[in-house]
Amino acid sequence: MTDTKLIQSEIGNRRTFAIISHPDAGKTTLTEKLLLLGGVIHLAGAVKAKRGRANAVSDWMEMERERGISITTSVLQFPYQGLHMNLLDTPGHADFSEDTYRTLHAVDGAVMLLDSAKGVEAQTQKLFRVCKHRSIPIFTFVNKMDRPGRDPFDLVGEVESMLGIGVYPITWPVFRSGVFRGIYHRIKRQVILFDEALAKSSAHLGSEIAPFKISEVDDPVLREELDQAGYQQLQDDIELLDCAGDEFDRQRFAAGEISPMFFGSAINNFGLEAFLETFCELMPPPGPRQANTGIIPAIQPDFSGFVFKIQANMNKAHRDRLAFVRICSGRFHRAMKVHHVRSGRDLRLANPTLFLAQERSLVDEAFAGDVIGVFDTGIFEIGDTLTEGAKFEFEKIPSFAPEYFSRLVSLDPMRRKQLTRGIEQLAQEGTIQLYRPAGGYAGEMILGAVGQLQMEVTKYRLQGEYGVKVKLEPLKYQLARWVSSSKGKLDLEALRVACPGIVVHDVRDRCVVLFEQEWAIGFAKERLPDVVFAETAQGVVVRDDQ
Ligand code: G4P
Q: What pLDDT is recorded for position 247?
């Protein structure tokens, strides 16, 4: 095979995705099953490390101290059916941070996992919006079907109306006396019934797909397996689905406009095979990415990538950090010199690391779609582009609207300089969002974060790395909007007078208003019809340009 062909074939095998869900929907369980099916781990329960971390903040720091830099389950790489899967973790609970959002900029598709009894929940909705914004393909898996849940048509309707995406059920649940018995595969027109007896025992909870029987829809055996009501319901459902839906449209799926939906139970291995089969068929390999000079094809031989996450080492003795780079094109190899476009410097990456399911190992080579971790001595910022020499930069990752705000109070007035330097660095690096009130007293600082953990990490790092003790006083604001004027120049004074919120500037000097409640945004919009209130910083020009 020629070099170009090898690169193209390797990239063609990559599938880089994330699972988006609300805590408790079963993401860890599903991940674990994928690893079992990929033959990477052999025991259920191996991915449990993150479970049961009630106090995530202190546990996380403890963990960081013990291990140096934590990789936990940030990136899982595993083989499946000849494909090379890269599953990127999107932490929830108290670990929820801007990194969670940014990770979605590094994937080519997502699996949205719903709890059948709960439907679309808050965190799923937030993560979904980022996927939708990027127009990436999204699969929907409705989990916990073994428990009493909501009507499946209800769930379809909820996804469509709450998330604004079309749904195409590929599998559909089959019940007997209201109890989940299996799935109907709409493309194959077959019913897959799970072996109830075995399902009740825990014998199948290993790496095997749960035992099942396949039958045709009009097979008389099916009538016996389901009771009359269950059988009739299946016939009615099939009819309803067939006349309600169009054909599955691949183009609309690829554009993130329509989501194939599956039903099952991750813990029982029910319905996973049908899901994975379609996933492997439909999930696209790495595609072209937008850069400031045009489109960069993934299969070009020249390496390029961008930093989407920086993980700080919480151990004071080691100040280095780990930068996660999503490779967007070509091939990376260890000895390679890379060009850091923002600084214009050529670098040799120290100890590039590839993430395997349970460990990390030095990377010899990696391809578009893969994620490598590189040690960072302070040069990288979120969104930085690395190339093999070319000068282009990939689209910036937007700043996401924070929901937690605190006033930063120094407990160490003699170390003001260190505090300013430290907090500005942390904000540039993307650990936290920093705002300065317009017209506030010099040095007044407000911090914003999408998750509480970001606040704790900032406080900890300011003390550990810059030697300054701070106090964080929680503020009542809950919403941030980047503002610009559709008429050109923004009138700050008018904004201050009309907005029931506080006007601040972010670290790049863009104007932001912090609000306490949603109604206040509507109120401000009414009073200032020429002002645009954006949820992310993307597209908002810096103040000097206004
Ligand atoms: P998360 O990562 O999304 O937070 O969810 P996780 O996989 O940890 O699952 C949350 C709970 O839901 C776990 O129970 C898990 O066993 C259960 N679960 C996952 N998939 C299914 C399913 O298909 N059916 C049913 N009935 N339960 C499911 P737990 O009691 O919190 O933890 P554990 O003691 O089982 O580990």
A: 80
Q: Per-residue confidence at 361, pLDDT binned at 50, 70, 90?
A: low
Residue whose Cα lies nearest atom 10 of ligand 1: it is 24
- At residue 396, φ and ψ (nearest 5 deg) are -65, 150
| pLDDT at 19 (0 to 100) | 95
**Extended strands (E) in 82-189:** 83-88, 109-115, 138-143, 166-169, 171-176, 179-185
Residue ID of nearest Cα to ligand 1 atom 4? 24
Chain position carrying tokens 């808050």: 122
Name the closest-CA residue to atom 17, ligand 1: 26
Burial pattern 173-186, b for ≥16 Cβ within 10 A else e, equals bbbbeeebbbbbbb
Task: Give ligand 1 pocket residues (Cβ under 6 A).
Answer: 21, 23-29, 51, 143-144, 146-147, 265-268
Please name the fold of domain 17-75+92-282: Rossmann fold (3.40.50)
pLDDT in tens, 252-262: 999 999 999 99
Which atom from ligand 1 is nearest to the alpha carbon of 266?
A: 23
CA 233 to chain centre: 37
Q: Looking at the domain 404-534, which fold is it?
A: Alpha-Beta Plaits (3.30.70)
Domain 289-387 annotated CATH 3.40.50.300: yes
**Left (φ > 0), alpha (ψ -120 to 50) or beta: where does 495 sit?**
alpha
